[in-house]
Amino acid sequence: MKLRDTVHFNLYKHVLLLALLLLFFRSSVWLTGAEFSKIWTNSNQMTAFFSRFLQPDVHYIPKLILPLVKTLQMSFLGTVIGVAAALPFSLFATTVVTENRWVSLVIRFILGLIRTVPNLLLAALFVAIVGIGEATGVLTIAVFTFGMVSQLMFQAIETIDLAPIEAATAVGANKWQITVFAILPQVMGQFASYTFYAFEVNVRASTVLGYVGAGGIGVILNASLALLNYERVSMIIILILLTVAVVDFCSERVRRSFL
């Protein structure tokens, strides 16, 4: 009897949850004014779009090589700067190093603020400050990488084995020596893995920074879309896809070697 009541209760609970989800979906459609019927009414426009989009302009590839190389250089330089800045901040963000809860909380609060700013908003702010160009893209990627990697790094430090730290402290090592010889050797493999992961993420993210003038191949993609040149848009997307696939493959192989 109790088993049957439990089964009925779980069934009612799932039905109620499903009803709530459906109600939320209906209210979301109503509040946003989403009209899915337009997908069918604009089918002719979709056909015209894909008829051009599925015919990539291969003759445009030579003009894309230099912007693509600039995008990769932006990603690499921004990643290096961001990781270099993240390393000391990640150390100060953990009580394992500082042994001061308030200092760590302040640093973590700052890192949290940085992570809440979206990439495109960062790029737009730097465009207003620095101007249009690859330098803006590098700064945007560096700040984004700093916020992301510092979070991963200090979390890795918080989980290390404390025995080497206690041993170093027992023989009279100072903070710097403890950090270099007892803490960093335990997490350098993870740090290297996070660096390559950040580069992998940044290559994908940097392709859309051109929409706000942050340089790279995204500028050409934005211009091609604005001119309704869908054949070139298709070719740019294919080239970006191949580049990201190669970077992902290489990054994954390197990261596995560190784990």
SSE topology sketch:
Layout: H1 2-32, H2 38-41, H3 43-53, H4 62-92, H5 95-98, H6 101-116, H7 119-129, H8 134-158, H9 163-170, H10 175-206, H11 217-226, H12 230-258
Structural account:
With 259 residues, the chain is mainly α. It has a single domain, classed as MetI-like (MetI-like fold), CATH 1.10.3720.10. The chain contains 12 helices and no strands. α4 (62-92) packs antiparallel against α10 (175-206), α8 (134-158) packs across α10 and α9 (163-170) runs antiparallel to α10. The protein starts with a helix and ends with a helix. The model has no long low-confidence stretch (mean pLDDT 79).
Strand content: under 5%
Tally of separate helices: 12
What would the average pLDDT be, to the nearest integer?
79
* Rough outline: globular
CATH architecture: Orthogonal Bundle
Q: Just give the CATH class.
A: Mainly Alpha
Q: Tell me the total number of β-strands.
A: 0
Described by strand count, sense and barrel closure, the largest sheet is: none
**Separation of termini?**
52 Å
SS class: mainly alpha
Order of helices and strands: HHHHHHHHHHHH
Q: Assembly state here?
A: single chain
Radius of gyration, in angstroms, nearest whole number: 25 Å
CATH homologous superfamily heading: MetI-like
| Topology-level CATH name | MetI-like fold
Query: What number of domains?
Result: 1
Helix content: over 70%
Contiguous low-pLDDT stretches (5 residues minimum) are none
Family: Belongs to the binding-protein-dependent transport system permease family.
Transmembrane segments: 76-98, 176-196, 208-227, 233-251
Membrane topology: Multi-pass membrane protein
GO cellular component, one term: plasma membrane
